[in-house]
Structures are given as structure tokens and as C-alpha cells.
Amino acid sequence: MSIGSDKRDRHGRGMRRPIASKLFRHGLSRANLFEEAVSDTVSYLIAKFPDELGTLNWRIEEVPMEERPESTNRWHAKPSTMTIVLYRIPIERSANTSPSDRRIQIERAVIFAAASLIDKDPWELLDQSW
Length: 130
What we know:
Layout: H1 30-48, H2 50-53, E1 57-61, E2 75-78, E3 83-87, H3 88-93, H4 99-117
Parallel strand pairs: 1-3
Antiparallel strand pairs: 2-3
Helix pairs in contact: 1-4
């Protein structure tokens, strides 16, 4: 038996690496990926607008438990407690099937909710470098 005869050791180049990326990590459910996207986006907003969003709180719920206006059926802002509530299932259903589109829809919901909380246009919260 020669060196490199392992089925996974192709042409003497060593073991193959697993094909894994951020989008396909083992053990992470959609809910975990959703929470990670929300957390990343909130961290960005707090860092970018510390005066207005420094005390921003967030919570994730599966679906709204009460009837909400059509414009906020994916999120709800509570200015009295500086809290945004994001509804995971409606946000994910608004996206196409690709993981990147789901991530964009999650980020969009967080930005729109935060903008409504501080009475700004959502586009004011976006930076070209992001």
C-alpha cells in the first residue's frame, strides 16, 4: 500500500476538506440561523447609531399572537421599552428559498423595525460599506 492510497486522499494531495460554509453549518436550525442574522444586524445598528439605538432590545417570536396591521405583520416596535419583536415564520415565508434571500429578508425586517422605533427612514440606517 502506498502513501496516499486512502480513497479520500486524491492524487497525493492529502485528505479532502469538508464542504461547509456559514450557510450549511451542521447542527444549526433555521431558528438558530434566524437568531444569528438578527443578532448580527442589531449589533451593526447599535454600533452605527449608539445614541439612538444603544439601548435597543430585541425578541423573536414564531408568529404574531394578535392581529397586526399589514405593514407590521413581520415585526413590531415598542418605543416605550426600546424593543423590536421579529416574527420568524412570516419573515422567512416572505423570502425565496435561497439562504441568502432569507438572510436579506431578516436583515430588512430588523432595519425597518429599528427605523420605526426611532422614527427614521429605513434607508437612513443603511451604510454603503455594509
